[in-house]
Amino acid sequence: MKFLIPCLTACLVIFIGVSCTPLVTTLISVPILQTVEVTREVTRVETSEVTRVVNVPATTIPSPTLDQTLTATLTPTIARPPTITPTFAPPRITILVTSACLYGPGSAYLYKYGLNATIWMTVIGRNMDGSWLNIKSSFDPVTNACWIKATQVRFDTGNIKDVPIVWTALPYSTLYKPPSAVNASRVGNEVSIFWQPVWMTEDDYVGYLIEAWVCQDGTQVFLPIKYATAFDQNNSMMVIQIKDEPGCDLPSSARIYTAEKHGYSDYRMIPWPGFDSSTPIQTPTP
Q: What is the pTM assigned to this prediction?
C-alpha cells in the first residue's frame, strides 16, 4: 500500500503535465491576431492616398476656360485704333484784300507780317466765335502762323466748321515789367480798371493790352483791348471801363500786359468785382 501511493502520485503528475500541453499551444497563437491588425492599418493608408489622387485633377479643369476668355476680349481692341485716326485736312483760303496778320485774334495785338491779296494760305485754327482765323503758308512751320479777320478771306476748300479752336502764345519781352497797383471797381454793369503806368522809351512805347472774358447779352465774350494812351504826368493812374453784365454761367475775368514793339511783359490778373459791389474804390494818390 505504501508503494502504491507514491506511484499514483507520480502518475497524476505526469497526467497533469500532459493535459497542460494544449493550453501552452493556445497561447502561442497570439501573433496571428497581431498580423490582422497590421493588415487593417495598411488598408486605411491606401484609402487615404486614393482620396488625394482623385482631388488633384479637379483643380486644373478651369485653366483652359480662363485662357479662352482672355483671348476673346483682347481680339476686338486690336482693330479699334485705325477707326479713330484723324483725317483732318486744313482748309485752303484766298486772301481777298491786302491785310495785316497779327499775333492774336483781334486788332489790339501787335503786327506780325503783311499778306497780299490773291495769295493762298491754309487755316489751322480759329477763335471761339470764328471771327478770326489762325493761318499760315503751306510750307511755313506752325510757329509762323498769324491771325486775320475771317471777313478778309474766302474758303476755297473746306469751311470754318472744319477748323478747331486754338490759342497761340504771345511774343514775350523782358524789357519792361507788367503794370503795378492793378485794381478794379464796379458801378452797375460798368467795371473800371486802374493801374500804375509803366515808364517806357518813346521808341518802344506801344501801351497796354487787356484780355477780358466778360458777359454781354447773356453770353461770355472775349475782348482784347489795346490801351495806347501815353502817360500823362498829371494823372497818377491809368483807367479804362469795360461793360460786364450778369446772366452768364462762367465768371468774368481779365488780365493786363505791358506792350512794347517787340512783345509783351508777363501779365497781372485784375481782381474782378462781383455784382454785390456798387461803390467805386478810391484810386491811390502818388
A: 0.66
How far is the C-alpha of 62 from the C-alpha of 46, rounded, in Å?
A: 28
Own/partner contacts of 109-112, CB < 8 Å, gap of 24 or more, are 109/147, 109/170, 109/209, 109/224, 109/226, 110/171, 110/206, 110/259, 110/261, 110/263, 110/264, 112/146
* Cell, residue 86: 484723324
Question: Three-class SS of residue 207?
Answer: strand
Give CA–CA dist 256/245, Å, rounded.
Answer: 20
**Long-range own/partner contacts, residues 94-99 (CB < 8 A, 24 or more apart):** 94/118, 94/119, 94/120, 94/121, 94/153, 94/154, 94/156, 95/119, 95/120, 95/121, 95/148, 95/152, 95/153, 96/152, 96/153, 96/154, 97/152, 99/148, 99/149, 99/152
What is the average pLDDT across 112-133? 95
Tens digit of each residue's pLDDT (9 = 90 or more) over 214-255: 999 999 999 999 998 765 555 688 999 999 999 999 999 999
User: Residue 253: what pLDDT?
Assistant: 97
With vertex at residue 24, the alpha carbon angle to CA 20 and CA 30, rounded to the nearest 5 degrees, is 155
Which has the closest alpha carbon to 108: 153, 145, 149? 149
Q: With the C-alpha atoms ordered 137, 139, 140, 141, is the resulting torsion angle positive or negative? A: positive
Give all domains of the chain, ordered by start, each with its CATH number. 92-162 (2.30.30), 180-269 (2.60.40.10)
